[in-house]
Q: What sequence folds into this?
């Protein structure tokens, strides 16, 4: 059935102009709670979604540049379950820099007050999702609570009453996922939660991920990922949580290369001694190098590091967490936990006697002290002016480095990404970025 014959109650479309060729070309079935769709949503379309969107197993949906998916905040059914985009098949989001694809709520609700309101459920790639590409997209205002009747709860991906939706979830250890050049912001929970699959996560901007916990990127067992060239602003807990939790005979050890990321203001909104920038645990095999940590609450952590190569340990002893730069401004956090660390300044957190600071990591890293704060000299971001607990991202910020920046030298040149030779998705090879010789996501502009 053609979607034009089914517009009715479930979904409406509006073109940016009167050209009929801009209308979606797809096959759709509609029930009271779901719209099942495959095919193509054409450039310029606007989709007003008031129930769960399902891409069936074995089928694909391609979303072209400039498409806007506006999700109702009313939810689905009598319980008002947050709307999910359920990817049982394949999803290909193909925005451009000039015309990104938007996943959001109605414009009047895109407010600072709603940053952590959790207005819908996000994109859930189920266990049968083989492929997903999200390129040049904006995904925002997600993180609704998973409740009884939510598709993700019914499928066993999340637990009703306990979990909130990340912006993007993956759950197929054999899946292939590419998430690049996108903005992932304003969500109650994690930005990206990988529970399985091979993934390239590169060139994205994360902002305001997590209200009372959560990270920008959170990975578990069954994942092999390159995470590079991303900017992560004000994640509640960490920019990167790298874990092999759930490892078994069928769900293999998690492997992660995290390099050339810029992580700012991480951890200040999280209570006690949690959070800070990078957290490596549960036998993760991780290479974390050339990252630039700016005004973060703590340094990289590896709990139980005295018992490596164990499911309860910090990380696999073949891992490398080194050649990173930790810089600090002079501002004091408005959120301090005297019963915990009592840390109020970034340089205090870097020097704090944290039980999860592994003395064998960051041996060659640059770590700011009270007497040497280290300023990376961004083109347009004052590390001494932006509040440590601030989470509203300013679009004019520019994290390129000025000529003469100390972040331009001292980094490592040694790392081979998992997908240096490419990850094939939808008959196209996607390549992980090569490691760059500076700390952070950008060099000189």
A:
């Amino acid at each position: 059935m053609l979607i034009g014959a089914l517009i009715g109650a479930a979904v409406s479309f509006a073109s940016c102009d009167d050209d009929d060729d801009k209308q979606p070309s797809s096959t759709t079935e509609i029930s009271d709670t779901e719209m099942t769709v495959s095919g193509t949503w054409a450039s310029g379309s606007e989709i007003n979604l008031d129930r769960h969107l399902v891409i069936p197993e074995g089928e694909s949906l391609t979303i072209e540049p400039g498409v806007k998916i506006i999700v109702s905040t009313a939810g689905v059914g009598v319980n008002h379950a947050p709307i999910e985009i359920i990817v049982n098949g394949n999803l290909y989001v193909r925005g451009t820099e000039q015309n990104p694809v938007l996943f959001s709520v109605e414009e009047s609700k895109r407010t600072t007050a709603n940053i952590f309101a959790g207005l819908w459920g996000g994109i859930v790639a189920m266990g049968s999702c083989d492929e997903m590409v999200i390129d040049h997209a904006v995904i925002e205002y997600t993180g609704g609570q998973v409740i009884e009747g939510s598709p993700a709860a019914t499928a066993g991906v999340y637990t009703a009453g306990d979990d909130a939706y990340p912006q993007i979830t993956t759950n197929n250890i054999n899946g292939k996922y590419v998430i690049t050049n996108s903005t992932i912001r304003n969500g109650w929970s994690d930005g990206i939660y990988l529970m399985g699959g091979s993934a390239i996560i590169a060139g994205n901007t994360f902002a305001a991920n997590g209200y009372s916990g959560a990270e920008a990127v959170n990975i578990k067992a069954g994942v092999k990922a390159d995470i590079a060239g991303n900017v992560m602003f004000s994640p509640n807990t960490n920019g990167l949580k790298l874990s092999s939790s759930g490892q078994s005979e069928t769900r293999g050890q998690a492997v992660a290369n995290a390099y050339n990321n810029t992580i700012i203001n991480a951890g200040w909104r999280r209570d006690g001694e949690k959070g800070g920038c990078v957290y490596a645990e549960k036998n993760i095999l991780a290479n974390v190098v050339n990252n630039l940590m700016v005004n973060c609450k703590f340094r990289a952590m590896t709990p139980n590091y005295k018992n490596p190569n164990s499911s309860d340990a910090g990380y696999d002893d073949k891992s490398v967490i080194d050649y990173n730069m930790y810089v600090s401004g002079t501002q004091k956090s408005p959120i301090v936990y005297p019963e915990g660390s009592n840390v109020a300044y970034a340089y205090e957190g870097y020097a704090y006697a944290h039980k999860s600071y592994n003395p064998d990591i960051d041996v060659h890293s640059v770590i700011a002290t009270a007497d040497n704060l280290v300023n990376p000299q961004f083109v347009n971001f004052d590390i001494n002016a932006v509040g440590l607990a601030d989470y509203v991202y300013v679009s004019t910020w520019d994290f390129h480095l000025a000529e003469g920046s100390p972040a331009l030298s001292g980094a490592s040149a040694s790392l081979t990404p998992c997908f240096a030779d490419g990850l094939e998705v939808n008959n196209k090879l996607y390549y992980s970025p090569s490691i760059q010789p500076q700390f952070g996501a950008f060099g000189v502009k």
